């Protein structure tokens, strides 16, 4: 009576092979099989409680959002300058380039795909903010954060009195914009300050805004909600994986 | 469906499994997180090559293995010292053939961390194979595809991994004062 081979044990453990009658008659093989089963169960159990943390999830989501932004940017039509004779038309070419640039900025987010691109960029900024939340660009003091942003982009944005926990300067639609993170009751919210109007960003006015100080505009993109209010020359876009109500709460707390 | 949005829907639900595999390979450390992120970054880059409807988790494990191999290659080329851990050393043969009479009870004495630490002492190929077979419960054919070896090799590798893991746990058991009877 020959004992089971290691290969047979593995097939039985995989459920791929029938358990030979020999196992019933051989206490040694039976004990070995039980031991291997117990070991497999214990190894499985050792990993059962292990889960990826939210920080890792955010890092990967930021990578995906960045890739989304790149994909959409690649899909945008490129402006190809006309070629003129350098000596005769150089001045005219310069004027045309300026005209095209101004026109393209105005036209930038006027189509559906460009609106989508802009919203995706906002979500990408939010995920990038979450990734760097552990290393904020400045401290947690609101004035300190405001001064940091002012030094970077030239103007001090409206900020909440409390709850801001980090700020950064990001690129949005080809220009540097200020953004900061506010601790929400359920999840962090990024506030991104952009010159485009909420309407140009594809947002629609909220229906229930009785309690709001300003008109709140809303949209959703990917796994995030976004809301925006216009203060002065800027739109303050709150982005996060929270409800619209929470986003409106963050925007209502902004003090000019 | 093949863009980043499709990736988020199809690949991201396997994050926990990929992270667990990274823990099996690197232990509970920042390295496990970095390996997971690098795996997803490469998967995102190559998502256009993924055939929707096939086993995405197995595809991710395969990418993780390649990322890991590239990592070791890079370190070798860069001339960095590679730690002389178990994966580079010949493995010691199990000292004695024993069968634990009360394997279930005995194994419950070990914490999850001790089990993972003992697993980390196995050579890398055995460690990944045992993880895929026992924890992820993939078929031997799937494991063979992921690790790029024949099914027979998966069987022998799994068997050797079990013996070695048992040997390491036996050492722990002796230190802790509970051992099975010898046969």
Question: What does the radius of gyration of chain B come to?
Answer: 18 Å
- Taken together, the total number of domains of chain A comes to 2
- Which spans of chain B of ≥5 residues are poorly predicted at pLDDT below 50? 80-96
Mean pLDDT of chain A: 78
- End-to-end separation of chain A: 88 Å
Helix and strand run of chain B? HHHHHHHHH
Strands of chain A, count: 9
The biggest beta sheet of chain A, please? Answer: 7 strands, antiparallel
What is the tally of helical segments of chain A?
Answer: 8
Spatial order of the strands forming the largest sheet of chain A: 2-3-4-8-7-6-5
* CATH homologous superfamily classification of the largest domain in chain B: Winged helix-like DNA-binding domain superfamily/Winged helix DNA-binding domain
Short description:
The complex is a heterodimer of chains A (256) and B (183). Chain A is an alpha+beta fold and 256 residues long. Chain A contains eight helices and nine strands.
What does this structure look like?
The complex is a heterodimer of chains A (256) and B (183). Chain A has 256 residues and is α+β, with helices and mostly antiparallel strands. Chain A has 2 domains: 6-48, no CATH class; 54-255, no CATH class. Chain A has helices spanning 6-14, 21-25, 27-48, 54-75, 86-107, 112-131, 142-153, 244-252; strands at 159-160, 164-172, 175-182, 189-194, 204-205, 217-221, 224-231, 234-240, 254-255. In chain A, the strands form 2 sheets. A 7-stranded antiparallel sheet of chain A has the order 2-3-4-8-7-6-5, sandwiched between helices. In chain A, strands 1-9 form a two-stranded antiparallel ribbon. In chain A, a hairpin with a 2-residue loop joins strand 7 and strand 8. Chain A starts with 5 loop residues before the first helix and ends with a strand. Chain B has 2 domains: 4-77, Orthogonal Bundle (Rna Polymerase Sigma Factor, Chain: A); 87-176, Winged helix-like DNA-binding domain superfamily/Winged helix DNA-binding domain (Arc Repressor Mutant, subunit A, Orthogonal Bundle). Chain B has helices at residues 4-10, 15-26, 30-45, 56-77, 103-108, 112-120, 124-135, 140-147, 151-176. The termini of chain B are far apart. Chains A and B meet through helix 1, helix 3 and helix 4 of A and helix 1, helix 2, helix 3, helix 5 and helix 6 of B.
């Amino acid at each position: 009576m020959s004992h089971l081979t290691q290969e047979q044990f593995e097939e039985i453990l995989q459920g791929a092979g029938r358990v030979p009658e020999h196992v019933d008659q051989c206490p040694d093989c039976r004990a070995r099989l039980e031991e291997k089963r117990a070991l497999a169960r214990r190894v499985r159990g050792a990993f059962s409680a292990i889960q990826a943390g939210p920080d890792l999830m955010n890092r990967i989501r930021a990578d995906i959002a960045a890739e989304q932004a790149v994909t959409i940017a690649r899909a945008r039509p490129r402006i190809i300058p006309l070629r003129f004779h350098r000596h005769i038309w150089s001045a005219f070419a310069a004027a045309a380039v300026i005209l095209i640039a101004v026109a393209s900025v105005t036209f930038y987010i006027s189509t559906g795909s460009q609106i989508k691109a802009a919203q995706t960029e906002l979500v990408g900024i939010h995920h990038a903010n979450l990734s760097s939340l552990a290393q904020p660009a400045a401290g947690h003091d609101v004035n300190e954060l405001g001064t940091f942003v002012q030094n970077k982009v030239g103007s001090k944005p409206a900020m909440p009195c409390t709850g801001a926990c980090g700020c950064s300067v990001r690129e949005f639609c080809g220009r540097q914009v200020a953004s900061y993170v506010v601790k929400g009751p359920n999840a962090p919210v990024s506030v991104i300050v952009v010159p485009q109007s909420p309407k140009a960003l594809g947002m629609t006015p909220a229906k229930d805004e009785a309690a709001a100080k300003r008109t709140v505009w809303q949209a959703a993109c990917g796994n995030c909600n976004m809301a925006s209010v216009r203060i002065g020359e800027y739109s303050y876009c709150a982005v996060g994986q929270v409800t619209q109500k929470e986003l409106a709460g963050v925007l209502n707390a902004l003090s000019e | 469906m093949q863009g980043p949005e499709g990736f988020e829907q199809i690949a991201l639900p396997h994050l926990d499994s990929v992270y667990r595999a990274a823990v099996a390979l690197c232990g509970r450390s920042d390295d496990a997180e970095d390996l997971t992120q690098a795996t997803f970054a490469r998967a995102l880059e190559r998502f256009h090559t993924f055939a929707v409807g096939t086993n995405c988790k197995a595809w991710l494990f395969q990418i993780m293995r390649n990322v890991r191999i590239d990592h070791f290659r890079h370190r070798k080329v860069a001339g960095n010292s590679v730690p002389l851990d178990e994966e580079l050393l010949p493995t010691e043969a199990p000292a004695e053939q024993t069968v634990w009479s009360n394997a279930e009870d005995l194994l419950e004495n070990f914490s999850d961390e001790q089990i993972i630490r003992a697993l980390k002492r196995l050579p890398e190929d055995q460690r990944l194979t045992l993880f895929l077979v026992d924890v992820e419960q993939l078929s031997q054919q799937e494991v063979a595809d992921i690790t790029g070896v024949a099914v027979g090799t998966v069987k022998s590798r799994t068997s050797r991994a079990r013996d070695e893991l048992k040997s390491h746990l036996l050492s722990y058991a002796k230190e802790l004062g509970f051992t099975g009877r010898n046969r």
